[in-house]
Design goal:
Helix content: 25-40%
Radius of gyration: 15 Å
CATH topology: Aminopeptidase
Strand order of the largest sheet: 1-2-3-4-5
Distance between the termini: 48 Å
Strand content: 25-35%
Structural class: alpha+beta
Number of strands: 7
Number of helices: 3
Oligomer: single chain
Low-confidence stretches: 112-117
């Protein structure tokens, strides 16, 4: 449970696909007492890179996404931000504000070597 701006949210964890996708991800949700999903954070199962973070407009600027990031860091061995060129403008600002590690660029070079070797 987290509480921000006088509202309490349950933090729920599940392994689930992102809507419209078939790949399972770590999913963290902040859910209101009324059952509304205020915010969701999806983290890739294999790379532990954030695939998506979104907060509903009515709940923004309360620190909910940051609380979900903290919950993910507490549960998973590592949580990585995507490289800046793979983020939206808002995602980039949030990643800078919340801190944490970013995926390693060298991993891409190693993957390229594996593909073309």
């Amino acid at each position: 449970m987290i509480s921000t701006e006088g509202t309490t949210y349950e933090i729920a964890y599940a392994v689930a696909a992102y809507p419209g996708e078939n790949t399972d991800l770590h999913r963290f949700q902040a859910i209101t007492a009324d059952g509304d999903i205020a915010s969701e954070l999806y983290v890739a199962m294999d790379t532990l890179i954030i695939a998506n973070i979104e907060t509903a407009p009515a709940y923004r600027r309360e620190g909910i996404a940051t609380a979900l990031f903290a919950a993910a860091e507490a549960r998973l061995p590592q949580v990585l931000h995507a490289r800046p060129e793979h983020r939206t403008e808002y995602g980039d600002a949030w990643a800078d504000a919340v801190g944490g590690d970013t995926e390693d660029h060298e991993d891409d070079a190693e993957e390229d070597e594996d593909i073309y070797a």
